[in-house]
Specification:
The termini are far apart. The chain is globular, with a radius of gyration of 22 Å. It is an alpha+beta fold. Among the domains are: 100 residues, Helicase, Ruva Protein, domain 3; 61 residues, no CATH class. The chain has a four-stranded antiparallel β-sheet.
């Protein structure tokens, strides 16, 4: 009976219709007041926009079960490292080879990581999201208490982005979390890191690959990317039962020497004092161990997930390995 009750509740949740946001709710009124007082918005414009928003139960359901939490690494990896996605990545790289090389020279960010991010995020622009960003952000700002503060901040940035003319707030679509365009930038990141790579006066993350490629590189550069350094390398254990090592950290809390002293064997061009992270994820036949460096940590600033950073690195590396020689 309990299982039937839970199943029925889930069915009702999935089938629950979107509801127009009630702009008279105290927290919605307080948000509108802040937008007027802090940023000088016209109150009628803000009220009309919020009245147009719809709260969608489906968005909350999706927020509660992202792929990184429910899939082991080997399943997460296999979802992204398909032959189709790798071939699409090769085609994408060949089409934008000059721009990728240019951005790599200017920023130091490896082209394979830029390509890997675009492949994981949106299949190279094919899947950019079907939810109205206004609905996603409003739902999470006012009907998702555990992260309401964060998403109210993103809703604030979205309205500022709209006023700057970068997006149409009633029409633009994105992910269930409000991420936009081929690189899936949240509004705050869009305003902070998007660049006008095409030099046409517009930062277009949907239609301009010059802008998209440059924006991803700019994000990583400003979040700790180290030119010329590796992302991660495979590692082996000298002996079982590693003492004191904690896997899964998003930060490089060890050093190369420290990890070797604790029983890890790996090759790296970096010095013994270089910052490093111990990574152990669930493979098909047991733990898969790697060592990540500062550039691995930089990728996790884009998405705070060890699995995500591994998938980006592995996908980009596999695509690069399949590239035909330049000029062929």
């Amino acid at each position: 009976m309990l299982h039937r009750t839970l199943a029925l509740a889930l069915l009702l949740l999935c089938a629950a219709p979107a509801l127009a946001l009630d702009e008279t709710r105290p927290e919605v009124v307080a948000f509108a007041d802040e937008m007027v007082a802090k940023h000088g918005f016209e109150r009628a414009w803000v009220d009309d926009l919020l009245r147009n928003a719809q709260s969608q139960p489906r968005i909350i359901e999706l927020m509660n079960k992202p792929a990184e939490r429910v899939r082991p690494w080997f399943q997460y990896r296999d979802h992204f490292l398909t032959d189709q996605r790798v071939q699409q990545g090769v085609d994408f790289w060949m089409q934008h080879r000059s721009r990728l090389a240019e951005v790599e020279r200017e920023t130091g960010v490896s082209a394979h990581v830029i390509v890997g991010i675009l492949g994981v995020e949106t299949f190279f622009g094919r899947i950019t999201g079907t939810f109205r960003v206004l609905d996603a952000l409003a739902t999470l700002a006012f009907d998702y208490p555990s992260r309401a503060t964060y998403f109210r901040g993103e809703l604030e940035q979205f309205l500022l982005l709209a006023r700057e003319g970068s997006v149409d707030p009633r029409e633009v679509k994105g992910s269930y979390a409000g991420a936009m365009g081929a690189p899936q930038f949240m509004p705050r990141s869009y305003r902070a890191y998007a660049v006008d790579g095409g030099a046409d006066g517009i930062r277009d993350l949907w239609g301009s690959w010059e802008d998209v490629i440059g924006s991803v590189a700019n994000y990583l550069k400003r979040n700790g990317w180290q030119p010329g350094e590796p992302v991660a390398v495979p590692a082996d254990l000298w002996y079982p039962g590693i003492d004191g090592l904690v896997a899964g950290s998003l930060n490089t809390s060890y050093t190369v020497a420290g990890l070797r002293d604790k029983g890890l064997f790996f090759d790296t061009p970096l010095g013994e004092d270089a910052a490093a992270a111990f990574i152990s994820v669930r493979g098909e036949t047991g733990p898969e161990v790697r060592v990540g460096f500062r550039n691995f940590s930089a990728i996790t600033k884009y998405n705070r997930s060890v699995l995500y950073a591994l998938a980006v690195h592995d996908l980009g590396s596999r695509i690069e390995a399949r590239l035909p020689p330049a000029g062929s």
